[in-house]
Amino acid sequence: MKIQSVRGTRDFYPDEMALRNWLFEQWRAASRRAGFVEVDGPVLEPLDLYTEKSGPEIAEQLYWLTDKGGRELALRPEFTPTLARMIAARQAALPTPIRWFNISRCFRYERAQRGRLREFFQWNVDLIGVEGEIADAECISLAVDGLKAVGLGPEDVEIRVSDRRLLSALVQTYVGVSEDLVPSVFAILDKRDKVPAEALAGMLDEAGLGNEERSRLERVLTFRDLGELDAIGSVQTPAESLKRLFGLLADYGIADWCRFDIGIVRGLAYYTGPVWEVYDRKGEFRAIFGGGRYDRLLGDVGGQSMPACGFACGDAVLGLLLKERGLGPPEGSETDYYVAAWNPDWPKVLQMVRHLRSRGKRVQFDLKGGKINRQSKNAISSGARFVVVIGDKEAPWPKVLVRDLRQGTVSQPMEYRKVGDEGQ
Amino acid sequence: MKIQSVRGTRDFYPDEMALRNWLFEQWRAASRRAGFVEVDGPVLEPLDLYTEKSGPEIAEQLYWLTDKGGRELALRPEFTPTLARMIAARQAALPTPIRWFNISRCFRYERAQRGRLREFFQWNVDLIGVEGEIADAECISLAVDGLKAVGLGPEDVEIRVSDRRLLSALVQTYVGVSEDLVPSVFAILDKRDKVPAEALAGMLDEAGLGNEERSRLERVLTFRDLGELDAIGSVQTPAESLKRLFGLLADYGIADWCRFDIGIVRGLAYYTGPVWEVYDRKGEFRAIFGGGRYDRLLGDVGGQSMPACGFACGDAVLGLLLKERGLGPPEGSETDYYVAAWNPDWPKVLQMVRHLRSRGKRVQFDLKGGKINRQSKNAISSGARFVVVIGDKEAPWPKVLVRDLRQGTVSQPMEYRKVGDEGQ
């Protein structure tokens, strides 16, 4: 009976695992350079944690189950609600700013397709307790550092930055839409790249926007430069804030990675300020990841309201981009030494193995006790740089020979306890 | 609305996460020294993967759900079935021996109690394709290396080793139980530490063992030394194999960690040869972890039969033992440099921050742009060893001062781009 894996999940054989470990290490190292510390929570969370905020419809997109006690449990679709729960539980004791990152396995019950998996990983970064644009800039700077760390540059990707407060002010004062309609206009605009123009116009019409409002909205979406807003007095406060943010991004030395894009709104309802998304410049993929400011979320899950911003970067779309660009971990071997013996002789072989492993070396030997020729073959395919030869006539135990497979050299006979400094 | 986490799951705040990361790094490093490579699979697996082998009852102890297509999916309770599925899928292409390790998040729907969680982590090690005792010894040696790496020694823990073939031969030829009863006798013996002696006798009686057989079985369980078996001719083959295993454990230099214990059977039905469990010497905890040989498992999940052995070590009981012994990651700071400025001046601060981060340093600064006194306080609580001071009268930009908080010294004014070699 052969059992298949679940659609939208992945098996990580050694090569795929090496790539995943490398990616996670880049994320960890970038996060730590920026002074963030790692946290994590459960995969299994109360379903309420998601439905309370997003409504019961969200359950359709989650994996969830009812346990024997009748409790509804969900597999986390993202980390932010867990983070908010963890902070709310210890809010009084945690000094701000809170700088947390997390690499979490998440689950979404969506149609599995290219770049969209049902089980995936996410790098989460959250900076909590700082109001100013500097916090948003710090997060974007960390996102750039993470992209750099995996080998991407400003010629590969760009970060499109906007501010919901700016778009909201424009939609109200320039387009002439009432405040209560803003959320539905945002939801429609977030679909802009996914549906044809006529469909979009239809949706806006249905939301209550007349012809004139729709054409003013179209005009808004053509703004390419923050300077174009100088003439619109009613949006100066959010426009000034966004200018300060771009100034800080220049101070971080990452201006060439970033550009203003009024059309960035982000799908999730909880964003309250700057929002941004990373795209590949060739336009081959949908948004790679994004983030923004969400000052009300902590209050909404039962804690005190606190200013907060951050981002979440999945491994699926980024993984496709890295693959396409041929980026990944440097070639490396899993083995430092291979211990071979002319006559299978476990006490000596194991003494040699022990000695090298106790010195931190990665050591293999022929567990099947084969002939020396077979051992030599295995040594090469193991990727070991050095082969220790036990039982050579020239080097009677406790002496051994050490072959350097890279240099093609053989050592003088040496005492086995002296082996281990090669290649340092 | 305050939402609680699910019982039997854990939140990992920075301290708990640092401990978890440290533990995983010890496991990874030990595995790699022994030449094992990391793999992983999904958390979400078909429920069949577990029920086909263990019967439908196992679903009672799992978290599982039915998806919209009517498919039954389970959260993995252990990694071995996934491993067997992954190997079966690529068996022809994988060169043997296969040396895989894995650190997986697993789920069991059991009563949550001390050392028993519903969501936990497991270090899995599997060595596939080698029949001889050397493979079992290699796995036990790696288990010991993992224990050593976290600071435990042979005075803290012992590994109790037996062989199911030996106990099976003794139960049949010495106790006089028929072969078909052996599995139920094993299942009862595995409960030996958990139920009172009378209850055990009752269970054996029910399984069909008479008084005389029960007392011979009791005699078997008093064997402390493999030499005691020399007189029982019918068990020489498995006894010799177990002696060879102990000989190899001595060659590995770990004889003082290991002792023969005929009473070790392991709960899982799939073991076919040597079996072993790790206990703390004080007897405060149940088995910390264990492993053994399972030569038939791969055939049972639809692949070709292959000799295989390994172990799985959960983080819950081990975590309790480490806590009790005060073992854990070395004290360390999350921050190398704190950048402070007399006059909040983002362009200079961020230039300094960028410079240090681009050199791989972990850098913090005051995102709230506070006064210099507040920055000094934050620098100390950040754990940074060095504070870079921008805007001191003695060191006008692009010069700065560097305070070494550990040594209590201050540098001469220096060009900001020269900072970063301190403490090397």
The domain tally of chain A reads 2
Radius of gyration of chain A: 28 Å
Overall, the morphology of chain A is elongated
Task: Name the poorly predicted regions of chain A.
Answer: none
Task: Report, as a whole number of angstroms, the end-to-end distance of chain A.
Answer: 50 Å
The ordered string of helix (H) and strand (E) elements of chain A is HEEHEEHEEHEHHHHHEEEHEHEHEHEEEE
CATH superfamily of the largest domain in chain A: Bira Bifunctional Protein, Domain 2
How much of the sequence lies in strands of chain A comes to 15-25%
Strand tally of chain A, please? 17
Largest sheet of chain A: 8 strands, mixed
Could you walk me through the main structural features you see in this protein, from its secondary elements to its overall organization?
The structure is a homodimer of 424-residue chains. Chain A is α+β, with helices and mostly antiparallel strands and 424 residues long. Chain A has two domains: 14-41 and 79-324, Bira Bifunctional Protein, Domain 2 (BirA Bifunctional Protein, domain 2, 2-Layer Sandwich), CATH 3.30.930; 337-418, Rossmann fold (3-Layer(aba) Sandwich). Helix content of chain A is 35%, strand content 20%. Chain A contains 13 helices and 17 strands. In chain A, helix 4 (133-149) crosses helix 9 (236-251) and helix 5 packs antiparallel against helix 8. Chain A starts with 13 loop residues before the first helix and ends in a 9-residue tail after the last strand. The mean pLDDT of chain A is 93. At the A-B interface, helix 1, strand 1, strand 2, helix 2 and helix 3 of A face helix 1, strand 1, strand 2, helix 2 and helix 3 of B.
